[in-house]
What does this fold into?
Amino acid sequence: MAAADNTVAGRLALITGASGGIGRACAIELWGEGASLALTYNRNKAAVDELVQLLTKDGSHAAQKISTHQVDMASADGLTSMMANVEEQHGRTPDILIPNAGYGKRIPMINDIPLDEFDYTLTVNLRSAFILAKGCIPGMTERKWGRIVFISSISGQGGGINGCHYAASKAGMTGMMKNLARKHAADGITVNDVAPAMIGDTGMIPDAKYVAGTPGDVKNIPVGRLGTPQEVANVVMMLCKTGYMTGQSILLSGGLQ
Ligand SMILES: NC(=O)c1ccc[n+]([C@@H]2O[C@H](COP(=O)([O-])OP(=O)(O)OC[C@H]3O[C@@H](n4cnc5c(N)ncnc54)[C@H](OP(=O)(O)O)[C@@H]3O)[C@@H](O)[C@H]2O)c1
It folds into this structure.
């Protein structure tokens, strides 16, 4: 019988969208726990540079390494060469994968959603997560240890304020998660997703004022406030440290359904 191994220190975590609110919080959390990091950004290099500066400024993490990578989630070739570059820089493929980078133009009603917007949203959110998981699972299988935590959304469960294009891309992640969880559990790989709603301090929901008077109004959230990126990172870390939990989609929504 395999012993429980929930050690995060010394592992390599690949976090996409580390230039955004949730990715940044996950990076800080995993770094604090002793993981090395491969962080991606698309347009906002300054945010990821500032994050690296923050993490390395006291020089007390000598055993850990950070690399940063520009990549567009819509580019399959870009994702493949990013993963090769991660392996080159760290001498290994990731043990922990957090497919977090995401996009969702707010178009609530199906009649207003152009076909190319549907295709693009699925490409950025879902196809990229498939490419990333496909690239990381062989190394995880070889080492008999892996953690994959997709950042999905309440929309994948039918809630949220966006349209069906975004919902489909996130529900697809949950379906893929459940399949991968079953197929790879025996190899020490857990696969779960965190489904947030209304997380502030992010590009998606910059602050409470942004949603006042809309279907996303804070008044409609049962706990009476937006969630924080740190609260998403808390759940991500719990999943990284809990190898007995796999195949789960965890709604993190302040009580919204
Ligand atoms: N905030 C919420 O309430 C909420 C709720 C449910 C789900 N989520 C999910 O949480 C994840 C993180 O979002 P966030 O809330 O932290 O928002 P955010 O601050 O806007 O971060 C989005 C991140 O995704 C990256 N990204 C977007 N399009 C990309 C592309 N084509 N290629 C590569 N990277 C791309 C951005 O990179 P650059 O900025 O460098 O371009 C940024 O790092 C997303 O998947 C989102 O769907 C958020």
